[in-house]
């Protein structure tokens, strides 16, 4: 029986390896993490992350061929294939601060594998890493391992999107495996391809060199985020000219060379990956002495920040140029629908802007816990604990959140926001009642008929 261990039971390691266990009953999968609390949650009925379909997959194979454990060393010792799926956040200090990926977790995971392993291992980079990280991993493994232990390193970046992780894993557009172009590298590549081939058609399992594989992940995220920033840049032109960004995106998306996906204007992208990976690419370009290339990609992030502040300014302007002491309901705190993840959520930046104007904020999100919202907002970059206590309140119902407020600001595209009883909401609000749709999901005509003042991105009022 093939044995797989995954280091890192996060948004990627958890779902990815759970699906491998689900699809490969002949493979034993153990997911380990340094965070014992997170492991306990994976072993409970309340999984640590919300992802449609995840509960069913975990329930079907947990205890059969899927195990969650805090015993990292045992996981390493027993495995033939080891996924490294640890976090690679943007560095906060030191060389490359604000741009480069912090590889401390990848390095300490690699050192641990070297220290503990007593048999040959295939080590797989699942984390998103800068180009040529595999080379550093190999140097660490070879310098620190016991004698005669062979390590092969593969790059197998993950392309799942949060909110659709299980569907993406069950039916991926492609699985990418990078390896050294040597007989040993090809043999390792085949061992991993054989795992995926349990459910992924062979023609979708693509192989290439390590560096191309590592760079492809950064490139894919940069291109996706660039589409969002492009359509958001167009939304500003639409507002100034009277064009409608939804119509423009529709017309452009019908061109088969462009395609319809990822052309929805919004308050901006969030999530733990897009910004981090673009900044990583910017840093790489600068390190390679390519300042024009760095500047080109940086603009995707600049446009995203611009879109968020533009939206905050719109809210303030329409509310008669002041929101001081006014009450605003924020609908949605997660960075997108169908996830409880708030990392880099546009809502954090928007709430920061509103708090700076001394507005009172009522927050409702169907999947984000109050403790998470507090953690995100009581951050030196956002607000003080005192500001949070006096100006932020979290609600369990959108109707409660919207009571006695001057405006509703929709920041996450949760489906339930489309079907609320907006007459009831309107009746409970201060007048004039404003609604700002930062995701272009609401029926604006219907809302106007009820009496709302409606504002959306990418269209004149
Ligand atoms: P996460 O922060 O949710 O999970 C990482 C986990 O690794 C944490 O639970 C942490 O305790 C654990 N960990 C850190 N060092 C460890 C060690 N030495 N041994 C064992 N466990 C250790 O991060 P997430 O979102 O799962 O991301 C992981 C990687 O996957 C990142 O490089 C990210 O860029 C990449 N990625 C993320 C995607 C996403 O949608 N979140 C999509 C595709 C790739």
Automatic annotation (TrEMBL):
GO cellular component entries: nucleus
Residue positions of the active site: 273
Binding annotation for substrate:
158-162, 217-221, 257, 264-270, 335-336, 439
Decide whether keyword Oxidoreductase is in the record.
yes
Q: Which annotated residues bind NAD(+)?
A: 8-13, 33, 38, 86-90, 127-128, 162, 273-276, 343
Q: In which pathway does it act?
A: Nucleotide-sugar biosynthesis; UDP-alpha-D-glucuronate biosynthesis; UDP-alpha-D-glucuronate from UDP-alpha-D-glucose: step 1/1
Q: Where does the record place the UDP-glucose/GDP-mannose dehydrogenase C-terminal domain?
A: 329-444
Q: Name one GO molecular function term.
A: UDP-glucose 6-dehydrogenase activity
Keywords on record: NAD, Oxidoreductase
> E.C. number, please?
1.1.1.22
Q: Which reaction does it catalyse?
A: UDP-alpha-D-glucose + 2 NAD(+) + H2O = UDP-alpha-D-glucuronate + 2 NADH + 3 H(+)
Does the record's keyword annotation contain Oxidoreductase?
yes
Sequence similarity: Belongs to the UDP-glucose/GDP-mannose dehydrogenase family.
Q: What is this protein called?
A: UDP-glucose 6-dehydrogenase
Q: Output the lineage of the source organism.
A: Eukaryota, Fungi, Fungi incertae sedis, Chytridiomycota, Chytridiomycota incertae sedis
């Amino acid at each position: 029986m093939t044995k797989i261990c995954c280091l890192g039971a996060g948004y990627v390691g958890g779902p990815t390896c759970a699906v491998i266990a689900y699809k490969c009953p002949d493979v034993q999968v153990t997911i380990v993490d340094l965070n014992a609390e997170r492991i306990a949650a994976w072993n409970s009925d309340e999984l640590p992350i919300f992802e449609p379909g995840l509960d069913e997959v975990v329930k079907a194979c947990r205890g059969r061929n899927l195990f969650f454990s805090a015993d990292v060393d045992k996981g390493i010792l027993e495995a033939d294939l080891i996924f490294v799926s640890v976090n690679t956040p943007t560095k906060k200090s030191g060389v490359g601060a604000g741009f480069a990926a912090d590889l401390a977790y990848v390095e300490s995971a690699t050192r641990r594998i070297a220290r503990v392993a007593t048999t040959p291992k295939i080590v797989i980079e699942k984390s998103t890493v800068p180009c040529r990280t595999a080379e550093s991993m190999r140097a660490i493994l070879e310098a620190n391992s016991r004698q005669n232990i062979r390590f092969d390193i593969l790059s197998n970046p993950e392309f799942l999107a949060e909110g659709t992780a299980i569907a993406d894993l069950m039916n991926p557009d492609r699985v990418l495996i990078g390896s050294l172009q040597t007989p040993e590298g090809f043999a390792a590549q085949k061992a991993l391809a054989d795992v995926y081939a349990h459910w992924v058609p062979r023609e979708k399992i693509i192989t290439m060199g390590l560096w191309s594989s590592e760079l492809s992940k950064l490139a894919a995220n940069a291109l996706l985020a660039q589409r969002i920033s492009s359509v958001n840049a167009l939304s500003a032109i639409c507002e100034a000219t009277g064009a409608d960004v939804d119509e423009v995106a529709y017309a452009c998306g019908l061109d088969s060379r462009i395609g319809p996906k990822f052309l929805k204007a919004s308050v901006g992208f969030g999530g733990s990956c897009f910004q981090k990976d673009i900044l990583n690419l910017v840093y790489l370009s600068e390190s390679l002495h390519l300042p024009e290339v760095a500047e080109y990609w940086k603009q995707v992030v600049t446009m995203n920040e611009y879109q968020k502040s533009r939206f905050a300014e719109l809210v303030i302007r329409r509310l008669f140029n002041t929101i001081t002491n006014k009450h605003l309901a924020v609908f949605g705190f997660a960075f997108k629908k169908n996830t409880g993840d708030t990392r880099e959520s546009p809502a954090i930046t928007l709430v920061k802007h509103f708090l700076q104007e001394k507005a009172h904020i009522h927050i409702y999100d169907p999947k984000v816990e109050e403790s998470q919202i507090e953690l995100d907002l009581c951050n030196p970059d956002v607000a003080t604990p005192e500001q949070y206590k006096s100006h932020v309140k979290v609600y369990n119902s959108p109707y409660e959140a919207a009571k006695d407020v001057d405006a509703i600001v929709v920041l996450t595209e949760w489906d339930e926001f489309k079907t609320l009883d907006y007459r009831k909401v309107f009746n409970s609000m201060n007048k004039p009642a404003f609604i700002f749709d930062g995701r272009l999901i609401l029926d604006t005509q219907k809302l106007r008929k009820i009496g709302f003042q409606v504002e959306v991105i990418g269209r004149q009022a």
